[in-house]
Amino acid sequence: MAHTLEQTINALLEQEPALRQWLEQMRALIRDTRGVTAIAGLSPAETEEFLRLDPRLRAHRGAMTAAEFEAASARHADLKSRIEAALQDDAIESLSDWGAAPARG
Q1: Kindly report the CA angle at 62 between 57 and 68, in degrees rounded to 5?
Q2: Strands (E) located in 1-105
Q3: Using CA atoms, how far apart are residues 16 and 54, in angstroms rounded to an integer?
Q4: ∠ CA(12), CA(52), CA(21), 5° rounding?
Q5: Is residue 95 part of a domain?
Q6: Angle 27-33-38 (CA atoms, 0-180°, nearest 5)?
Q7: This protein's superkingdom (predicted)?
Q8: Which of these, 31, 42, 62, 64, could form a disulfide with 69 (CB 3.0-4.6 Å)?
Q9: Mean pLDDT by 10 residues, the chain (105 residues)
Q10: Is residue 98 part of a domain?
Q11: How many C-beta neighbours within 10 Å does residue 37 have?
Q12: Phi then psi for 98, rounded to 5 degrees?
């Protein structure tokens, strides 16, 4: 039975409770325009890729060649950088709204 991307992402998050907790604490788990769970700054497909890469890199221990590890590390760093940039943009936007005069009705 084929799984939807949403089901796959949720299954990957369940397999990595520490990563899920970090993402939740950072408020990085969002829903895209179609209602699919994603990580801020990433598409659902990139979210799946990140969720597969993260534990794979942590458990490397010879499971990949040096070239594979280097490529996976570079891709992981790119995705993580995009997550951090999206979270920073969200924080800046939230702060710019802070202290604004309440709307008058």
Answers
A1: 60
A2: 29-31, 37-39
A3: 9
A4: 50
A5: no
A6: 40
A7: Bacteria
A8: 64
A9: 84 95 94 92 96 88 85 96 94 72 53
A10: no
A11: 19
A12: -70, 130
CA distance 90 to 35: 19
Domain that holds residue 32: 5-85
Task: Of 34, 52, 43, give the one whose Cα is nearest residue 86.
Answer: 43
**pLDDT score, position 51:** 96
* 75 in a structural domain: yes
Tokens representing 11 are: 């299954």
Domain total of the chain = 1
pTM over 0.90: no
Amino acid at site 16 = E
For residue 85, give both structure tokens.
């940039």
pLDDT at res. 79? 97
Token look-up 């534990």 returns: 55
**Structure-token match 């998050």, residue found:** 13
Q: HSE of 75 in the Cβ direction (CA atoms, 13 Å)?
A: 17
